[in-house]
């Protein structure tokens, strides 16, 4: 109903779980606390995670899945503060419902982790009060609080708007730190040792398809909706948002794009096959190589002022250290539209021995998309001298440097 389209449910829970197994990922499942409720939530956990001998677990076995799926992470509804939601709740109503649903779900499987709904946008008038009230009701029975944030580019006539657009990671950082502060305030109020971490389970760029979606005839089967075609400037913003998530990974323990294919997605499909959007490249690299421990850098770089943000660093960067492979991966973005940056990284407690791989994503017009399949990662020259990693970052570029290290 929410998208006024016909959903056949041909691809349901079993098909989705089979897909997660094929691609090597894990499900982040949500229960319906809008139009359904406590028992439906508990029944779904029983269907998915209970081995056998109960009504719902035996139904799963009858439907072809003998072993339980053992889904670990469950969201207690979705965007329940949103006026667009069917079954929208006040913060108190939702917090109470989430707490009771959590108790019922954990009665079925006490090993699951639960995510309470935070604000669906920092722009909502209830932001802040929503988080505090919800957590006051359900703090003891949940593990995470969710955040959602999408960004758009709305001032094409202003030549300075690109600087502002690329600075929107500052907004993301402020959002995260604000929600962390609220979580910790409730923690202090309750005099508990338990810490609530964050699940940033919806984020991306989203604005290209807005006009087209208003013209779609309602109640079609699988209409083309939210099919944003991303350009190079979107890829740069997504890269910076990824860096921001890594910088806050001490509290952001879950972060994911809500959709991966066609719908505001890095991968597109059509009758001709599959192709990568511009945002695929930074997302792919951080997903594959941003592993281990995030190392917050001490960065010395100039800043600029934009329409919304008084200080945006020209350089955005983070490093991750994978202890399993002894690899250090540096992600760095130059937001300067005209000038290259000489990038120097001095390691303090790790010794760099060799550059494994270095790539750059640059040289495209900010408005260029990848429908013609021309976008590619390109080699980047990076060197190591006296335990210092050096590279030249081109204007408007996303860069990754992987280095072998030892202690």
TrEMBL record:
Record Gene3D superfamilies: Glycosidases, Golgi alpha-mannosidase II
Residue intervals of the Alpha-L-arabinofuranosidase C-terminal domain: 201-397
GO biological process, one term: L-arabinose metabolic process
Keyword Mitochondrion tagged: no
Pfam families attached to this UniProt entry: Alpha-L-AF_C, ASD1_dom
Gene Ontology MF, one: alpha-L-arabinofuranosidase activity
Catalytic activity: Hydrolysis of terminal non-reducing alpha-L-arabinofuranoside residues in alpha-L-arabinosides
Keyword tags: Carbohydrate metabolism, Glycosidase, Hydrolase
InterPro entries found in the cross-reference section: Alpha-L-AF_C, ASD1_cat, GH, Glyco_hydro_b
Keyword field contains Hydrolase: yes
Domain of life: Bacteria
The protein's enzyme class: hydrolase
Pathway: Glycan metabolism
EC number: 3.2.1.55
Family that this chain belongs to: Belongs to the glycosyl hydrolase 51 family.
Subunit and interaction comment: Homohexamer; trimer of dimers.
Name by which UniProt lists this protein: non-reducing end alpha-L-arabinofuranosidase
Species of provenance: Lentilactobacillus kisonensis DSM 19906 = JCM 15041
Upper classification of the organism: Bacteria, Bacillati, Bacillota, Bacilli, Lactobacillales
